């Protein structure tokens, strides 16, 4: 499992976020090439340089406006939405960018008592914030983390001057976006988390936890503009962790049901989300032979699976307990053999492939087409992969 972790000890802004992900390894050339698909390249200059804050070296990103869209006017939500929809960005980047802008517009509309279509973004409608948000989507699409985590978020303190006048820090939009999220404040009396930074976390973070429970592989730092009493930096960590899911086991002992019913019960359970169904022969009280029916399930499917058990079996009770399912990272590749194309599933542990297996149905199909044994197909796959792995 690939993990991206935001350490927001000094908050987060859109430019700090871009700088940190570039420092983590997203190529600047790739980011600029994707951003050019917005069709706004004549409106801004994108600058990246190395700098230092409080003894920490990292990237500093500046997005300079070189073409005002209208004197004193900023884009509103509808205009930004149309720019993104009409762009040549990938579907994932378009959808994520729109999701972040929509969430931001909804928070602004709620605060100011208007609709999202009537929201004028002021600072957020400026070119730098558009690049910050779309750039965030581009970088996340490049990294493709399996899970995104964050620490508590430092919000800062004091007051800040913006288009709406002088507002307390954190500004209302930040509080609205981070509702239900663990935060801290007061390390410095400056704005440390901006609405742009807040919406990036609110839309993308899967869980908030200060405890780090994974193997760290890389670290990146994105530096803020101000010099503060603490290092003004966003730290991002890239790591790996063996995949684990929390599932549940349902167990039912059955000694009085026609065994012909079991295949039907299994089909019903699988159709409603069961991850696995298996049967174990057991001996119950008074020496009666029976079957222990076990169902591996996600929490969200427990209610429907319990209903099937009680409806389709003779059981009048069941046991339920949580289990942790640990699994290897997996990916599928198509391999071209002398017999034809087939899929092979590769399994990895700590980033290293340790086993592979050709898909049985593909092997079966090619064996029939070529009038050879399934073993011949599998042997050919092994030969190809072992040759590929030789230095």
TrEMBL record:
Regions that span the bilayer: none
EC number: 4.99.1.12
Gene3D superfamilies for this protein: mk0293 like domain (3.10.20.300), Transcriptional regulatory protein pf0864 domain like (3.30.70.1380)
One of the GO BP terms on file: protein maturation
Reactions catalysed according to its record: Ni(II)-pyridinium-3,5-bisthiocarboxylate mononucleotide = pyridinium-3,5-bisthiocarboxylate mononucleotide + Ni(2+)
A single MF term (Gene Ontology): nickel cation binding
Entry keyword set: Lyase, Nickel
InterPro entries hit by this protein: Ni_insertion
Function: Involved in the biosynthesis of a nickel-pincer cofactor ((SCS)Ni(II) pincer complex). Binds Ni(2+), and functions in nickel delivery to pyridinium-3,5-bisthiocarboxylic acid mononucleotide (P2TMN), to form the mature cofactor. Is thus probably required for the activation of nickel-pincer cofactor-dependent enzymes.
Record-stated family: Belongs to the LarC family.
Listed NCBIfam families: nickel pincer cofactor biosynthesis protein LarC
Record protein name field: Pyridinium-3,5-bisthiocarboxylic acid mononucleotide nickel insertion protein
Gene that encodes the chain: larC
